[in-house]
Amino acid sequence: MKVLVAYDGTLQSKEALRFGLQKVRQEGGEVVALHVFHSGMFIDYDSHPDAVGRARREAFNYVDEARQIVSDFGSGIRVRVLTVEGVPDEEIVSFVMRRDIDMVICPPGLKNVVKKIRVASKGNDPTPGRLCRVDPSVMVLH
């Protein structure tokens, strides 16, 4: 089973990553934690000149935290932590559609991703499309 965890650095996404690791530990497979740096949000951004640099550093910290969670909870599990730039919803949906993903796990803040995956996958469904909320902090599409 290939599990994608949409990781944005929030407490809920940290819980989602731990849930994904636990699920793969039980059933076997691989976890891909995907973080998207929203580079487009700085277009016409009238603020401190180093705003983009600060945001990038914060994003790298999020990715480091994800790697630490993998180190702490993912022993023996095949895991990749990836980071890309773009619009988070679009990049996550594109990633799912281009790969053989069996389960998508995301925090509630990225719930639109789940809706967009379901719409994009009509007729080419990479997942059965069943959505469930595992707890208040984790949404799963499988």
Summarize the structure in words.
The chain has 142 residues and is an alpha/beta fold. It is 43% helix and 24% strand. The protein contains four helices and six strands, in the order E-H-E-H-E-H-E-H-E-E. The chain has helices at 11-27, 51-73, 88-98, 111-120, and strands spanning 2-6, 30-37, 78-85, 103-106, 131-135, 138-141. The chain has a six-stranded mixed beta sheet with strand order 3-2-1-4-6-5, with helices on both faces. A hairpin with a 2-residue loop joins strand 5 and strand 6 (138-141). Helix 1 (11-27) packs parallel to helix 2 (51-73) and helix 3 crosses helix 4. The longest helix has 23 residues, at 51-73. It starts with a strand and ends with a strand. The relative contact order is 0.23.
Outline the fold blueprint.
Layout: E1 2-6, H1 11-27, E2 30-37, H2 51-73, E3 78-85, H3 88-98, E4 103-106, H4 111-120, E5 131-135, E6 138-141
Parallel strand pairs: 1-2, 1-4, 2-3
Antiparallel strand pairs: 4-6, 5-6
